[in-house]
Amino acid sequence: MSYYNKYTKLLFLLISILSYSSIVAGTTGKISGIVLDKETGTPLIGCNIMVDRTTLGAATNLDGAYFILNIPPGIYTLRASMIGYGTVRLNELQVIVDLTAKANFSLSTEI
To answer: How far, in Å, CA of 106 to CA of 85, rounded?
Structure first.
């Protein structure tokens, strides 16, 4: 009886560890980058970055940096837009589970 309990507990522990590792494994990716003024190279604060055909997006911070979390794996088009600047699209950005896809933009002024 003791021999049986010992292996039952060991089997239960092994199954628990394997289950935990599959639960912790990621299912989404991340996009990050910087948005700069094309002419001056200065960071653009408050620029909107949107993932086309989704509700996902972000705005740049004081350094012109942004990040978008929890993006399902796939290939996406990103759109950077800001008042006074032309819209820029980045096509075929691949997002992979547990990795960060880099997408930097340079926007030109527009009248």
So the answer is: 10
Burial of 100 (0-12, 13-18, 19+ CB in 10 A): middle
Q: Report the DSSP pairing between strands 48-51 and 29-37.
A: unpaired
| Helices H / strands E in the chain, number of each | 1, 8
Q: Contact at 8 Å (CB) between 3 and 70?
A: no
* pLDDT tens, N- to C-terminus, the chain (111 residues): 455 667 777 777 667 666 655 555 689 999 999 999 999 999 999 999 999 999 999 999 999 999 999 999 999 999 999 999 999 999 999 999 999 999 999 999 997
CB 58 within 8 A of CB 66: yes
pTM of the predicted model, to two decimals?
A: 0.76
